[in-house]
Amino acid sequence: MGEVEKVTSIDEFLNEYKQLTSVYNSAQEILAKEQKTDSELYMKCIKLAGKCIRYLDDINPFVSYRHKPEICTTYYISAELLVRTVGLHMNRNGFDEKERNTLYMAIAHLRKVLGLEPFNKRAMEMFKLVFLYLTIFNPNAEENLVLLNQILVVDPCDYQLHYNFGFMYHRANKLDSSVYHYKLAIGLIDLVMRNEKEEPQLLVLRQFKIKCLNGLGSVYFTIQDRETAMYYFKLAYEIDPNDPDVNNQIGVVYTELRFTDKAIEHYMRGIENYKRAHISVDKEMLIASMYMNMGLAKCYECDFIGAIDGYNQALKFKPRLSLAYQNKLLDSNYISHLIEDPMYISRIHKAINKIYPLVVDDYKVSCPDYKVKQDIVKCKSKAELIKRGTKIHIGFVSGDFICHPVSYFLHSILSHINYDLFDVTCYSVKVVKLEDLFPRCKWAVVKNMSNEDFKKKIQQDGVDILFDMSAHTGDNRLDTFVLKPAPIQISYCGYPNSSGIKSMDYRITDKYCDSDRSQKYYQERLVFMDKCFLAYTPSMGISSIPDIDKEQLCIKNGYITFGSFNRFNKINEMVVDVWEKILQRAPTARFAIKTKEFLTPKLKQKFLDRFKDKSVLDRVIIMPYSDTYTEHLPDYNKMDISLDTFPYSGTTTSCESLMMGVPVLTLFDKVRHYHSQNVTTSLMKNCGLDEFVTDSQEAYIERAVWYANNYKTLSGLRTKVRDAFVKGPICDYSGFTNEFEDKLISLYKNHKW
Hints:
By secondary structure, this protein is α/β, with parallel strands linked by helices. Among the domains are: about 1-135, Serine Threonine Protein Phosphatase 5, Tetratricopeptide repeat; about 365-535 and about 735-750, Rossmann fold (3-Layer(aba) Sandwich); about 545-730, Glycogen Phosphorylase B (Rossmann fold). About 55% of the residues lie in helices and about 5% in strands. The chain is built from 32 helices and 13 strands. The strands form 2 sheets. Strands 3-2-1-4-5-6-7 form a 7-stranded parallel sheet, with helices on one face. A 6-stranded parallel sheet has the order 10-9-8-11-12-13, sandwiched between helices. Strand 12 (about 665), helix 29 and strand 13 form a beta-alpha-beta unit. The radius of gyration is 32 Å and the shape is elongated. The two termini are about 60 Å apart.
């Protein structure tokens, strides 16, 4: 193709302009009538426009003003055609450098138009469209906000623009700004609707208002303001009761509030209407999410078989939906007693690697610039390491730094670790920083951070050992751990099973929770603490725990009271059957139970229905749920012995029980050596309370019945149990962190670099 001839005068430009508009109008007419693009005509337009613009870019401003309509039209046609050549398709992953530069050229031409005609409607709409496309394919929320501000200058009253601002500010965790723009968008829509008479356009406006209300509700849900979130979701629901996105959101709130019947009803309505979605671009992702959420609602009903069925339905639509697969893994732990093959759960955990597009198990691939710290490798003692001034940088990734059982075990480490030996960074998956509580830790909020950006941050921070505190529980970031951002990665505390991912190097446990025979269940290599793998810190602090009744309850009552405050999802039919046999063989014994799930009447009834012998129910006491920790703990004074669950034992509840002077009768798994069943065993043995550890259901029943018949032997037990717990290894924070430090240094020194 030869060089395009240049325009050299205004008269020549005006002649070329007539030809350009003629060809352009012909091409537009064909597009309107035949719904197809005439490529030949458009290419001719591009050549003519290019010929003119070479001249117009340097034209005298006074001449520009005299011929403003013609010049504006030329620049607009050029911009529109440049955008069309990029061939925008919503299902694409983004633009290459050439396409992006083409769009930037189109923006430059549109600026020319708006410089001459600031209210040129066509140019304003095209200008906004180009920037919106640039944001759609850009995962960086902060960059997108800069792009959107370019549009704001052009049209500050565009409700679609303010919706996009609301969405992007939400992604950037700037929630006040997100709320402001969503509300502004709704106000602008209402103004337009007052003057709109055409029903098709009103329908479009109503749908957009639903998007804004849905987004607004999502912001409030982010900060756990469920009441306000539901208010906005219901406003959207009133506009269109069949909108699948809105029904999904309402279902999520009802699930959180444990109104699971209502939640499932909304999920089903959303699933029936998922093809009508206008908020979610990916309709298959939406229906997969609704099936997954319905599975979660059934999980809260302790219907784990139904829950897993929901997750499997979700995976049919989105086979790589990691959250659905992870929920399936988590719930499998509650039905392990129904699975004959002891390796089944292990196999499905290891299959998690197939969910992720990329799994890196070699740090040399992911961290090629990492230099092994030889001072650590060669050091012979902590004192020597401190003298050399070389620290191990450890990172903790969690969404549970506050108001969660994980925090009760992590806080002891953050409070007592030697900061002369370790640098510590906490990566919070929620909008939470505890800088005042742990001032020597570095804190970073990584909520909504992309996997790659999170990986880069970890590596820029220079983390040597990275802890995963969640595995397959909520707010996990395994999607980043699979990329191997740190040379050593350790699974710890938050999940009772293997992470399953190849990039996880180690898992910290102890000799009671696991054994050498347990290794076959794990992808990670087991690292055994000499004592308990946990140290417990109650949320109010160990110095503020409530008093215990010095006189044993059974001595006052003349009969023993057993109890359980475990979550209902651990109380399966097998457990209830064992408890029923204890009550049958101990006719004077009482059994007290308290669990949050009993706030849902159907779950309370489900528990009672599991007793085959209804006569024992006269001695079953269902205690009211306690909203606060200080109200909850004194209720342990109303029992003599806690009865543990199996095959998923208590952890936090067992610690609470021991702290309040109540021993826990538990069942040690010596056959399968499942970690989930053996945590209470570790707690009891580390407290020197071995007599409360049994190794079979029969032995569990026999021991409970013996105590029921010999309850006077329990006199003075409360004080003994509290002292064993508070003064023993579980609350020996200095001793625990000292051993924890030793294990980390040893792992670093002996790691296969």
